Fold these 2 entries.
Entry 1:
Amino acid sequence: MPKILIVEDNEMNRDMLSRRLLKRGFAVETAVDGLDGIVQATREQPDLILMDLNLPEIDGWEATRALKTDSRTSHIPIVALTAHAMVGDRERALQGGCDDFATKPIDFASLIAIIQKFLPVNKVMDGK
Ligand code: MN
């Protein structure tokens, strides 16, 4: 079962994403800020990270940089969740080491498609 770490400070968004991914058969871990995200990613070794960019403590760009420069976590794909459809945010996310991004409000079907691109073949879900 693929494990996804959701790093999101907004409780409502975090819970909704978490519920939907669980329902879909993923294992889910959550972190409430960038610092927590780094700690959880290192400890839990998720298959993929969904990273909100606007986060307290350490923002999503900084947290991504930290994860991508640490050999314990650099292999984990990071999908940025950008709050606005702002081109600058996306570019910064990709330049900062994010592997892809999804724009809020999250379209769940598109998000699943993005997630599946990055999962190891033996962990790809059939979506049923
Ligand atoms: Mn946020």
Note: Residues 9-10, 52, 54-55 surround manganese (II) ion (CB under 6 Å).
Entry 2:
Amino acid sequence: MRVVSNALSLQKTLLKLKQKGQRIGFVPTMGCLHEGHLSLIKMAQKKSDVVVVSIFVNPLQFGPHEDFAQYPQTLQSDLLKLKALKVDYVLTPQTDSFYPQNFQTQVHVGELADVMCGPFRPGHFDGVATVVLKLFQIVQPDIAVFGKKDYQQYLVVKQMAKDFNLPIQIFGAPTVREKDGLAMSSRNLRLSVQQREIAQHLSETLFVAKSQLSKKVQIDLVKKNMWAQLTNLPQCKVEYVEICSALDLSPLKKYVPKQSLIALAVRVGTVRLIDNIIV
Ligand code: AMP
């Protein structure tokens, strides 16, 4: 496994491999790796010859009052996990060289960023799209894998690839959960023991909603029930609960099996958690 911090040098190496006919697979991450990330890498390994993982906490996607400074960083143990998986290349850029002082071009995401997490995190998806496009330009992968845990992000990236004619196949990987159902997230590390117990009820709420939808309970009522369940939890502040089209996040008038997304964002203490299921 080669760990490279210089983007240009990695770009050159990977271009040579591509010219030799190697298929490049890419998994961008912000580090603090858990089984969720590792499942994406395993998927990429099945679909390509050479796998590149990036570890970069992207300042562009954090708002001024968000947790950029507190975002957990565990580079040494991340590298051990990647080595054990036999990842080929790890890109670990330094922020200053990745975004030099005169950096001035950004991607702007349209309607997909107007719903769910968008209004609560102004500029977040522009920051995500910008870093992903930049990483795509460096790695020039044939395929890239994103987690459906961040379902809105996955759709934003797929849309960008389509809008900009990027010759990259985007795959979505299923959400990996802890035994009690909590979606794995680097931010779970920041939960206290008590908050960690409370957090398990987030996925429970999604599964209750799923069962209500399958029993033909009206969407508005299901959302109301979710809201009530979540606001009853101690230390929790609900940002949104949403039941929408899994294809484009547009509002759903009626439940469409397999194409409906149930999603939520909740602050448990100061830790913002998101989760979703497709039903
Ligand atoms: P992050 O490091 O949080 O930026 O995530 C990097 C990638 O891992 C993104 O595509 C996430 O959607 C994905 N990911 C994060 N948590 C999970 C999870 N529990 N299951 C599957 N994928 C995940």
Note: The longest strand covers residues 236-245.
